[in-house]
Amino acid sequence: MRRIAYCSPVNPVESGISDYSEELLPFLGRYFDLTVVVDDGVQPDNHQLGAHLPVERIGRLARLHRRQPFDAIIYHMGNSPAHSGFWESLQTTPGVVVLHDYVLHHLMLWHAVNRRKDIRLYRDEMRRRYGDAGAEVAQRMERGQLSDQVFDLPLSEGVIERATGLIAHSRYVLDKARSVRPDLRAAVVPMGVPSVAAPDRRQARLDLGLPPDAPIWASFGHINPYKRIEQSLRAFARFRADYPAARYVLVGSVSPNYDLAALLRRLRLDDSVTVTGYVDSLAFGRYVAAADLCFNGRYPSAGETSASLLRLLGAGRAVLVSDIATFSELPPAVVAHVPVDIDEEATILAYARRLWDDVDLRAALERNARAYVAAEHTLAGAAAGYARFLAELHGWAPPEAARPPLWQVEDLPAAEPPSVAALAMRAIGERAAELGLQPADLDHCDRPISRLAGVL
Q1: Axis crossing angle, helix 281-290 with helix 201-208, rounded to the nearest 10
Q2: Most buried among 28, 92, 380, 435, using CB within 10 Å?
Q3: pTM, rounded to two decimals
């Protein structure tokens, strides 16, 4: 079998890509002999890795490759310090890049300051890539004046230029990468996530002490201004005027630069919003199971594909997403898209009221979400996509899975994509009189109605 060096963060490194890799590796190991390459000083805490795969440090990769060349090297690149050592290695020992975020600005700033101990590397690269505008943003960032402009100055060009091939999880990132390097051999491989059993909503609420029958909203992941939390909370405050028992659960750590507590006080939501902080995987799953309506907002976007969003969909939750970048690629029968515009808050509210009042519509969205992940985002399918791309890139014979997964990770079998009923619009219209819409909603209902027409 072909020998592959797989360079990625793993637990206990705090990165979503750590979980991603530990779930993908047993399936990718069906096709290749893998060597897991971690950052220097990292000791994996997943005993399955050491039991089934050799583990090396990134500082030894070049020497190992000279001594006995790998057939391919894979580097996972995301916008966090967890990837600094892999970026350092990529510059001298090229390989295939899995680009999780198109924007790598924060990684490159951290790398210059903390790994190379030379801020001039960041400053010079910003000027070289983006001219005077880049130099000005660099100066503000050095002073700690964080700027949204960094999302337009991605600093991923160097990574793309050094890649021997590129895997993206969205057409959005693939097109962005090819605008930097049109000759780049690249492919979209959908992200895989483990299957979960259909959750028991009532039991989860009992376990968490949440009301059994009230509407429960939820958002998951690190809480910061880019997640559109304020817009969602404002919509929730208006929703709660009609449903006083409603609760909103924010599951995840809170950015120290975001005064969430002050926002909750200002909106008078202290008694109806629960902020959990970081929770373990068991609690995370319970909150997913308890939720009726999930909101996954983003603006601006780093071009990321959200694993937590796919987990919500795989659990069969009704999810609202910002209509931006990679999130726009999700089918309208699977999620409710919320444009990031002046009507954002009103659109969230209109969706929430419609989905809560129309039980059949919400159930259809939940079924479609689960079926979509079963069809498009299995771990087995993701591993096969990796194998096909590597074979095409290097001219190998078509790949075959020569053995079962290296260890047990639940995965859904392939399924048919969700169907879309032609009578959806009429069904929504017939229920409109029963929904109790407020006059303020009427100006914003056309877009939600037309979007939700693809759900049933």
Answers
A1: 120
A2: 28
A3: 0.86
Q: Does 302 score more than 80 pLDDT?
A: yes
**Residue 171, domain member (yes or no):** yes
**Is 144 a residue whose pLDDT tops 80?**
yes
Q: Tell me the per-residue pLDDT of 225-280, one tens digit each, with 9 for 90 and over.
A: 889 999 999 999 999 999 999 999 999 889 888 999 999 999 999 999 999 998 88
Total domain count for the chain? 2
CATH of the domain at 36: 3.40.50.2000
What DSSP state is assigned to residue 217?
Answer: E
Q: Where are the alpha helices (DSSP H) in 358-456?
A: 359-376, 379-394, 424-431, 446-452
Regarding whether 59 and 184 lie in a shared domain, the answer is yes
CA distance 434 to 216: 21
pLDDT band for position 214 (cuts 50, 70, 90): very high
Q: What number of other Cβ atoms are within 10 A of residue 184's Cβ?
A: 16
Residues with Cβ within 8 Å of 398's Cβ and at least 6 positions away in sequence, in order, are: 388, 391
Q: If you average pLDDT over every residue of the chain, what do you get?
A: 89
Instruction: Identify the three-state secondary structure at position 126.
Output: helix
Same domain, 315 and 438: yes
Please answer whether residues 168 and 356 qualify as being in contact, where contact means their C-beta atoms are separated by less than 8 angstroms. no
- Write the DSSP string, 233-290: HHHHHHHHHH-TT-EEEEEB-B-TT--HHHHHHHTT-TTTEEEEES--HHHHHHHHHH
Range of the domain at 71: 3-104+156-193+378-394
Query: Do 318 and 180 share a structural domain?
Result: no
Q: How far does the chain reach from its first CA to its final CA, in angstroms?
A: 46
- What average pLDDT does range 50-60 have in this prediction? 97
**32 and 165 share a domain?**
yes
Do 271 and 170 lie in one domain? The reply is: no
Q: In which element (H, E) is residue 53 found?
A: none
- Asked if residue 139 belongs to a domain, the reply is no
CA angle 312, 318, 321 (to 5 degrees): 80
CB atoms within 10 A of CB 205: 21
DSSP bridge pairs for 165: 96
